[in-house]
Amino acid sequence: MIDKVVPTLADAVASVGDGASVMVSGFGDSGLPFELLHALAERRVRGLTVISNNAGTGTDGLAALLAAGCVRKVICTYPKSSGSNVFTGLYRAGRIELELVPQGTLVERMRAAGAGLGPFFTPTGYGTPVAQGKEQRIHNGRGYVLEEPLGADFALVKAWQADRWGNLSYRLAGRNFGPVMCMAARHAIVQVDDVVPLGALPPTAIDTPGIFVKTVARKDSRRASH
Amino acid sequence: MPAIEKLSRDRLAQIVAADIAPGSYVNVGLGLPTRVAEYLDPAREIVLHSENGILGLRGLAPGETGDIDLINASKQPVQLIVGSAICDQATSFAMMRGGHLDATILGAFQVSCQGDIANWSTGEPDAVPGIGGAMDLVAGARRVIVVMEHVTRDGRPRLLESCTFPLTGKGVVDTVYTDAAVIDVDRDRGFVVRALVEGVGREQLQDITGAPLSWADEIACLRR
After folding, report:
1. Mind listing the pLDDT tens digit for each residue in B171-194?
2. Which chain B residue's Cα is nearest to A26?
């Protein structure tokens, strides 16, 4: 019997070790797996590379993981936001490495990794600082930059509903990076509001098929319910 | 030299909004472009795109409450319109890069007469940099429209022969709407003025612009 649902959030993140690369879903707070991030921060792992759209605001979520000293490097598109003080402090103190990637390039690099593609040419960033040191080519009169696929050891993802096979549906625009990160990471860990019976999700309403998902935990499962 | 009387930010936003064709799919950036969205007439069915995967959104009406899973690129709460669609991030950026958006409206620090745009970094060493979706938008949208003030706060030109700040895109800008003029960027002629704010003279505009201006056959007059 396939059952990807684990009792607690702590169980869900138990295999994330020091030095792992971890994708984190979300656009700002929308689709951000707060509860998984808090469970990971409590484990006090060290030297993570976090790949996400932003770099956290306030003191919860990504900011909590950063403040706990777990993160060595952030790969993101837009780390500055109102309230992104934790990241800004670490960055100015030289205690965190930053790699900036245009957002569409970031998501397409993940998609390429998940879809088994090699490097690809994109027009995004041609003639700008992000193209420096990369192969560039003119094709049909237009400039392109060669970008590498980007996979990761883990993805922490927020979805809305899952069944025990790991089929997922998301809520509204909280979907954002979830589907592509589940594809791109070797081990996708998903927190959900609800675990529903197998067969309850209509096949056409499944945004991420369970083949891309390894672990599921309910977001309110800080302690085992039994 | 007498000071130029420029357009208010609201009037500028209104002028840009009136130039967007009905039925267009448009992405609007932060700041002044967000104000453009406020002047779009819903009856013209201009569909707004937000990079986090929403096609068809609007600002909250007074008294409406937000939802963490419905926000725009500035992370402000928004609402869906009737007919809206939600997609994942890869599909959202395929809309941009793949040339499916009719236009993108962005702010900028600088624009050059070759159509280069700089809008993500002023190169200050202590500042935290951020790119977001801007490089994808200017690379892929069918029309790249810049809305900005004609000069900096201390009076220096933003329209230049070449940008001094790090570029967002090279040779991508189609039209610049400023508080003094509307200027097309022509691959051969450079900046071509097609509209002037009433009371602004040609020499005055040239004086506050950092690159040579050409003039369209007919120059429209923009009332303040």
Report:
1. 999 999 999 999 999 999 999 999
2. B52
Could you give the dihedral angle defined by the CA atoms of residues A194, A197, A203 and A209, in that order, rounded to the nearest 10 degrees? 60
Question: What's the number of domains chain A is made of?
Answer: 1
Closest C-alpha to A23, from A90, A119, A138, A114:
A114
| C-alpha of B20 from chain center | 12
Contact B75 A88 (CB under 8 A): no
Q: What is the number of other CB atoms lying within 10 angstroms of the CB of residue B156?
A: 11
How far apart are alpha carbons A221 and A184 in whole angstroms?
A: 26
How many other C-beta atoms are found inside a 10 Å radius of the C-beta of residue A67? Answer: 18
d(CA B190, CA A195): 59
Q: Does the complex come out with an ipTM higher than 0.90?
A: yes
- CA angle (B130 as vertex; B208, A30 as ends), nearest 5: 125
B51 among known catalytic residues:
yes
With an 8 Å Cβ cutoff, are B139 and A123 in contact?
yes
Q: What is the pLDDT along chain A (226 residues), one digit of tens a residue?
A: 999 999 999 999 999 999 999 999 999 999 999 999 999 999 999 999 999 999 999 999 999 999 999 999 999 999 998 899 999 999 999 999 999 999 999 999 999 999 999 999 999 999 999 999 999 999 999 999 999 999 999 999 999 999 999 999 999 999 999 999 999 999 999 999 999 999 999 999 999 999 999 999 999 998 755 4
Domain that holds residue A107: 9-120+150-218
Nearest CB neighbour to B133, from listed A100, A103, A111 = A103
Residue carrying structure tokens 């500055």: A80
pLDDT (tens digit, 9 = 90+) per residue, B141-171?
999 999 999 999 999 999 999 999 999 999 9
The CATH homologous superfamily to which domain B9-222 belongs is Glutaconate Coenzyme A-transferase (3.40.1080.10)
Q: Strands B181-186, B175-177: parallel, antiparallel or unpaired by DSSP? A: antiparallel
Catalytic pick among B51, B124, B149, B198? B51
Q: Three-class SS of residue A211?
A: helix
CA distance linking residue A75 with residue A80, whole number of Å: 13
